[in-house]
Amino acid sequence: MKRRTFITSAGVGVAASTLAAPAIAQSNPEIKWRCASSFPKSLDTIYGGADFVARRVAEMTDGKFQIRPFAAGEIVPGLQVLDAVKDNTVECGHTVSYYYVGKDPTFAFDSAMPFGLNARQQNAWMTHGGGMELMREFYKGYNIIQFGAGNTGTQMGGWFRKELKTVEDLKGLKFRIGGYAGTILAKLGTVPQQIAGGDIYPALEKGTIDAAEFVGPYDDEKLGFNKVAKYYYYPGWWEGGPQVSMIVNIAQWEQLPKHYKSIFEAACSDATLDMLGKYDVQNMRALKRLVGAGTILKPYPREIMQACYQATFEVYEEEAARNEKFRKVYEQWRKFRDEEYLWFRVAENTFDNFVFSAPPPKK
User: Fold this and answer.
1) pTM (2 decimals)?
2) Distance (Å, rounded) from C-alpha 177 to C-alpha 193?
3) Dist. CA 283–CA 297, nearest whole Å
């Protein structure tokens, strides 16, 4: 009797496993996406963010969900990634949203606003401060859902052929600069240029532009800017903590199984930490090499910083007055920014100011 019961139970088990196998396979479909990057492969840290996401997603789905990154220009130019994702030319893209401020300045809130948030503050705003919800509502108009998938930390202020001393030195200067900062500097007489990363060096070498900024020492050294300009300024006040985003076509996103969505989000979150950590390690090493090779490192004169700060908030108020989408995000972002600044003044800034200026402890 027991033997018959065991055989019957075993038969049921076999039948169940036979039925379950197709169900499991069905819940783990093979999916292949293409990811257009805004960056050249030579920039292993920022381009590497897309590689990181692709690798992590494949690992967590046993190779069932594959994402193949393509460098800028391989499918579309670096500054056309948004349109490629919107139009479903590719399923996803890895980019910096401020590249698209020409369509709407509201895009910049998803990456970096001049005199805005540092990397930790940007992460706080996006994850717990309401930023993600606001930006996803905005992105719906472009058939896109976005995820933070990288951050460079505070960037450098750019490479210049000539020394900057006063605000007058900005007038007529042809400056390659990303994001919303170009609008602000134009208010001070600068002629901003939006050029993709891989095209900056030849423009600077040929004199098509007078100055250029990109990210920081590690990437800038790879791009060779120190060979054609000797003055290296800091800080990049327009990029206190720029988020790099993975943007996904909504129709493609909605077709993913729920657990694939969770895996993709986790991979993007991991990519943010990985990129920030790598830049923090590599930038100082690269900066030492650049200075050792003759680069002249200089802070922006305070007069220029103050003029840019004043112009920044004038531009914000002007844009908010005419752009309802911008105003909706700006009002909440500004409130969050002011509160975060209060908190960071209490502990972070006090700690940083002391330890960065303290003499080495006695042995």
Assistant:
1) 0.90
2) 6
3) 14
